[in-house]
C-alpha cells in the first residue's frame, strides 16, 4: 500500500462518485468529465494551494488522468438499471476515496514538514475536498456538514500519521482498511457526532420545550 | 487579434455579463461591481492558481480594471426596458468573453510550457471559470453543466492551440470568430452533448421504461 | 490596537459567527469547527492566495487556532435560549470581525507593497471573504450581495490605509471603532446602496410601470 496505489484507488473511486452525482443531475457527458475530474483531483489541488505547496505537479499525473478518464466514461455509460442496485457500492467507493486521499494527504503534508495542525487539515482537505467542490458545483449541501460521521475519520488519519504513530506499508494498510470500515459502518449504523440540539439537551437546555 | 485585444474584449463582455446577472438578482451597485469584476477576472485568477503561475500580475492590469469598471457602470445604469430586448445580445457578449478568454488562457499556458492537458484545462478554466464563480456566488447552477454546448468550444480552442495547429494573428482571428459562431449556434439550435438518459437509451437501457 | 490584537478580535468574532450559522443549520460539532475555522481564517487565506503571498504562514498561528477553537466550542455549547436574545450581539461580533480583518488585510497588502487597487481588494477580501465562504458552504446567498451596506466599509478602510491617510495606533483605533459603528448603524437604520430598480427610477425608467 504505497502512494501510487492510494492515488489510483482514490482517483477511480472519486471519479466514479462525481459521475454518479452528474448522472443524478442529468448532466451531459462533458459535465460528467468536469465533475468527475473535479471530484478526483479537487481535494489534492485545494490541499496544495492551502499548504503553499506546488500545484504544477497536478498536471503531470498523466497515468492518473487516463485512469480517471476511463473510470468516468465507464460509470457514465454504465446502465442505469444496474446503477440503482449499487447505492451501497457508491458509499463503499466514496469511503475508499476518502480513506486513500486522507492518508495520502497526511503523508504529503508530513513529507513537506508541515506542522501537526496542517497535517490534520491536509488529511481532511484531501479526503473530503473533492467531494465538497462536487457538492458546491451541483448546489448540494456538502456531505461533510450533514451526514453521518465523515471528516472525523480523515482527521484521525491525519492525527495518527502526523504524530508518527503510523509508518510502514503494513500499518498504513491496516489504517486504510479501518477507515473504510469505519466510514461504511457510520452510514450503516447512522453514527453521528453531537448536533446542536442534542448539545443543548445534554447541558439541560432543550430548545424544543 | 493579439493578447491585449482579447483581454479587453473578454473583460468588457464578462463585466457586462456579471452586471446583467446582478441586475436580475437586484443586487446593489457595489454587488454589481463585485460580481462584474469576479466574472471578468475570476477565470484568469483560477487558471493562474491552478497552473501554479504567478497571480501578482492580475493586480497591475490598471487599464483592464478601468475598462471593466466603465463597462459595469454602463451596464448597471443602462435602462431596464432596453436590456430586456437584449437577451440575444447577452448571449453574444458571453460568447465573445468565452472565445477571447479561452484563446488567451491557452496561449498563456503554452507560453509557460504547460503540458497539453494543462493547456486544454487552462482554456476551459479561463473561458468559463469567471462565469462559474459568478453562478456559484448567486446560487445558480453553473452554465457549464446544464446548458447548450459551452465548455467544449473552449476545450477545442485549448486542444488546437496546445497541438500547435493555431498560430499567427490571422488564424487566431478565424478561431475566435468560429468559437463565437459555434457558441451562439449552440444556443440558437439547442445543440447538446449526450446526456445521461440518452446515453442509457443509446446502449439499450431506457430508465424511463 | 496592533496587528496581534486585530487578529485575535477577528478570529474570535468570526469563529463565533460561523458557529452561530452552524447552529442554525443544525450541523454537528465537527461541522461547527469546520465552519468556524473557515469563517475565521478563510478571508486571510483567500487574500494571500489572490495577492500571490505566502500561505504557509497561516499554519503557524498556533495561538490564534487555540483562541478560535475555544470561541467555537463556547459558542456551540452556549444555551440556545440565551443565543436567541443575542441577534444584535451577533451583528456586533460580525462587525468587529469585519473591521478587524479589513484593517489587518489592508495593512498586510501595504506591507508587501501591493498597488492601491490590491490594498482595497485585500481589505474587502480579508474582511468579508471568510463570511462569503461560510455562506457558500451553507447554501446561503453571501451577505456581501444583498444586505445593508457591508463591503463598502471594508473598501473604505482599504482606501484610507492604501492612500497612507491612516497610520499610528491611535488613528487605527479610531478607524476600527468607526467601521464597527458604521456597520452596526447600516443594519439598524437599514442603509443601502442604490439597487438596480432604484437606479432605473433615478434615470427615469421605472421597470415596474
From TrEMBL, chains A, B, C:
<dbReference type="GO" id="GO:0005886">
    <property type="term" value="C:plasma membrane"/>
</dbReference>
<keyword id="KW-0472">Membrane</keyword>
<keyword id="KW-1003">Cell membrane</keyword>
<feature type="domain" description="Glycine transporter">
    <location>
        <begin position="5"/>
        <end position="78"/>
    </location>
</feature>
<feature type="transmembrane region" description="Helical">
    <location>
        <begin position="58"/>
        <end position="78"/>
    </location>
</feature>
<feature type="transmembrane region" description="Helical">
    <location>
        <begin position="172"/>
        <end position="191"/>
    </location>
</feature>
<feature type="transmembrane region" description="Helical">
    <location>
        <begin position="149"/>
        <end position="166"/>
    </location>
</feature>
<feature type="domain" description="Glycine transporter">
    <location>
        <begin position="92"/>
        <end position="161"/>
    </location>
</feature>
<dbReference type="InterPro" id="IPR005115">
    <property type="entry name" value="Gly_transporter"/>
</dbReference>
<keyword id="KW-0812">Transmembrane</keyword>
<keyword id="KW-1133">Transmembrane helix</keyword>
<feature type="transmembrane region" description="Helical">
    <location>
        <begin position="6"/>
        <end position="22"/>
    </location>
</feature>
<feature type="transmembrane region" description="Helical">
    <location>
        <begin position="29"/>
        <end position="46"/>
    </location>
</feature>
<protein>
    <submittedName>
        <fullName>UPF0126 membrane protein YvgT</fullName>
    </submittedName>
</protein>
<feature type="transmembrane region" description="Helical">
    <location>
        <begin position="116"/>
        <end position="137"/>
    </location>
</feature>
<dbReference type="Pfam" id="PF03458">
    <property type="entry name" value="Gly_transporter"/>
</dbReference>
<comment type="similarity">
    <text>Belongs to the UPF0126 family.</text>
</comment>
